[in-house]
Design goal:
Helix content: under 10%
Number of helices: 2
Radius of gyration: 32 Å
Strand content: over 45%
Shape: elongated
Length: 539
């Protein structure tokens, strides 16, 4: 339900309640009660708005069909369309400027890739297929590559210098070219032979690092793990056409075809299997982040579907006021979502996803220190993580804090080293804290510190040193220990530890202010073990 509809319902409810209260109670009590009802209902509206994706229609300067959209960040985006249309915004769609034409002429722009606010590349057809490039925000376009026949399907830049383009086969081989100078020049990649009469689709390419996937009309996706130097076909079960392909992780991806078909992979595309699609019309595009997915279809009007569980279930996220969707894309750096339509319409949404924790583990090193590692797929308003620990006999308490990345749709990895873990079972949890003070707890993980402790004497640090240095050691069981320092003739010059010790990891500081420059030995002894190491004092 949209906000206009909700406000209409609010008006109707107040009217009905007003009538009932006037009839049964009277006007005086009602005036205050109406305000209460309105406030409560408005809060429920705001809660609904906050938890649901909010789409808006932006003002477009064209009614031409829009084929492709590339979203750079939360402010910059480029759109390509029919009759030489290229649109650009640098203020999150507050204004869209027509920057096409010129050298592009009236050729249809079927795919576009924006590098930044000034630089973009696009593919055009008919009259062969061409690649045009601008470095001044679309003021001028330069022809940088052309093929007399065929059809360039999609461009993707790995970074500001390196990129790849793929196109329909010509002469028995796919048209695949690479650039190393920001798209100024293109050279043929190692050949990939055409199978039968297969061809590709515009916008049907996904790139992450050196992994590349592109769609075909031949019940297969082509995959490269080495930036396009070699390729492996992957069978798309039940889907002849692969109009769109997208991966949220290195292993989990979705592919959309004709008549609403959807395939999913959980192993990087080695196998694809069909899943239930929310609609039965052609795919316009797929994008996502974490376990969240957006799937646009070329219904009339266009529909965007939304999944929070990797495509297992879908709900309608947005229906366009008119026109069919032809492409959908998410900002490569940010959380802006754009979908473009057959009538020039531009639909916009800001992705709001929680801090999505994908892993959390605890392990120990040979010093008995606990190493915590965790990862997030997405973050929104994330101030950071409080690390909490408890034992069998104590409650959770905070032992540290790790800053978060605020808002990001890119996977992030974190770690924390607990040097003060106690003997026995230690339990850990993360308290994820938002900038507004809201928080959420992770699941609890546990680790047995004592079981993994060994008798160990670390190298001192720093070494050489002047005048003090730190020495770490660990003992796997309780008992008497002695840590002492000797000169090179075997004379004991200092005793750092001497007596009963619990099992665990420890650190002591050795102050050699009263000793002269030279090599010294330090020795750790228990009832059953001895370890000795050298250190150097330089004054």
């Amino acid at each position: 339900m949209n906000r206009e509809c909700l406000l209409s319902n609010l008006t109707l409810i107040i009217f009905i309640v007003n009538y009932l209260f006037n009839y049964f109670i009277g006007d005086s009590m009602w005036k205050s009660y109406t305000s209460v009802i309105a406030i409560i209902f408005l809060f429920s509206i705001l809660a609904n708005v906050q938890t649901q994706a909010q789409w808006t229609e932006q003002t477009s300067p064209t009614t031409n069909l829009l084929y492709s959209v590339s979203v750079v960040d939360n402010n910059v985006a480029w759109i390509g369309g029919g009759v030489g249309t290229v649109l650009r915004t640098t203020n999150a769609g507050g204004n869209w400027t027509s920057v096409g034409g010129g050298a592009i002429g009236t050729a249809d722009v079927y795919n576009i890739f924006g590098l930044d606010a000034q630089t973009a590349l696009c593919t055009t057809t008919p009259a062969g297929t061409s690649i045009y490039r601008t470095t001044n925000g679309g003021t001028t376009w330069t022809l940088v590559a052309s093929v007399a026949s065929g059809f360039m399907d999609a461009i993707w830049m790995f970074d500001s210098n390196n990129g790849i383009v793929y196109g329909d086969p010509v002469g028995g081989n796919w048209e695949i070219y690479k650039t190393t100078d920001g798209g100024a020049t293109w050279v043929a990649a190692p050949p990939l032979a055409q199978s039968g009469s297969e061809a590709g689709w515009n916008n049907a390419m996904y790139v992450s690092g050196s992994n590349i996937y592109f769609g075909t009309n031949n019940t297969r996706i082509y995959y490269s793990s080495d930036s396009g130097n070699s390729w492996t076909p992957q069978t798309t079960t039940g889907q002849v056409n692969s109009y769109a392909v997208w991966f949220n992780t290195t292993s989990i991806g979705l592919m959309g075809g004709s008549t609403g078909g959807l395939d999913v992979t959980t192993n990087g595309g080695t196998t694809w299997s069909a899943i239930t699609s929310p609609g039965a019309v052609a795919t316009a595009g797929i994008t996502g982040v974490g376990s969240y997915w957006w799937f646009a279809q070329q219904a009339n009007p266009g529909v965007v579907y939304y999944s929070t569980n990797n495509g297992a279930n879908w709900t309608t996220d947005y229906t366009a006021p008119s026109g069919q969707f032809y492409h959908i894309a998410k900002s490569r750096n940010g959380n802006w979502l754009l979908a473009v339509q057959s009538d020039g319409g531009i639909s916009s949404s800001v992705i709001t996803v929680p801090v999505e924790l994908t892993s959390f583990s605890a392990s120990t090193n040979n010093l008995g220190e606990v190493v915590l590692n965790w990862s997030t797929a997405t973050e929104t308003n994330n101030q950071g993580f409080e690390i909490e620990r408890r034992t069998e006999t104590s409650e959770f308490r905070t032992i540290g804090f790790v800053d978060g990345y605020g808002t990001t749709t890119e996977p992030k990895n974190y770690s924390y080293l607990d040097r003060t873990a106690e003997n026995g079972i230690n339990y850990y949890r993360l308290k994820q804290v938002d900038f507004n003070g809201k928080f959420d707890y992770s699941d609890v993980v546990e680790v047995d510190v004592t079981a993994l402790l060994t008798f160990n004497l670390d190298q001192n640090y720093p070494n050489p040193f002047n005048p003090s240095t730190s020495i770490k050691y660990s003992v796997p069981e309780s008992g008497n220990i002695r840590l002492s320092v000797y000169n090179t003739v075997g004379e004991e010059v200092a005793v750092l530890v001497n007596g009963f010790s619990q099992a665990g990891s420890f650190e002591v500081t050795f102050d050699a202010s009263n000793l002269s420059t030279g090599v010294y030995l330090y020795k750790l002894q228990s009832a059953n073990s001895v370890q000795t190491k050298k250190m150097m004092l330089l004054k």
